[in-house]
Amino acid sequence: MRREELYLTDIIQAADAIKRFIEGIQLENFFEDELRQSAVLQKLIIIGEAAARLPMNFRESHHEIEWADIVGFRIS
């Protein structure tokens, strides 16, 4: 199993990519851009998958984060 730090790095890198993808774009333009939407969705899935693989004791020690929502997004 990978170390926690690697999953957290995956989450940070995916979040940074989402920021780059949507930076400077108007909301209505985002909704018209299927390619950009797909890119953001893919990164959100990566975040959910990485969060799901974090050990439960790690998630429990960071109860301020809505882990269930993050993990659940990847299957909704």
Protein model, in words:
With 76 residues, the protein is mainly α. The protein has one domain (4-73). It has helices at 4-22, 27-31, 34-53, 56-61, 67-73. Helix 3 crosses helix 5. The longest helix is centred in the middle third of the chain and has 20 residues, at 34-53. The radius of gyration is 14 Å and the shape is elongated. The mean pLDDT is 93.
Tally of individual helices: 5
N-to-C span: 26 Å
Q: What order do the helices and strands follow?
A: HHHHH
| pLDDT < 50 runs, ≥5 residues | none
Largest sheet at a glance? none
Which bin fits the share of residues in helices? over 70%
Strand content: under 5%
Q: Could you tell me the radius of gyration in angstroms?
A: 14 Å
The general outline is elongated
Average of the residue pLDDT scores: 93
How many discrete structural domains?
1
Give the number of DSSP strands: 0
Secondary structural class: mainly alpha
Record keyword descriptors for this entry.
single chain, 76 residues, mainly alpha, 5 helices, 75% helix, 0% strand, elongated
Describe the structure in brief:
This protein is 75% helix and 0% strand.
Topology:
Blueprint: H1 4-22, H2 27-31, H3 34-53, H4 56-61, H5 67-73
Helix pairs in contact: 1-3, 3-5
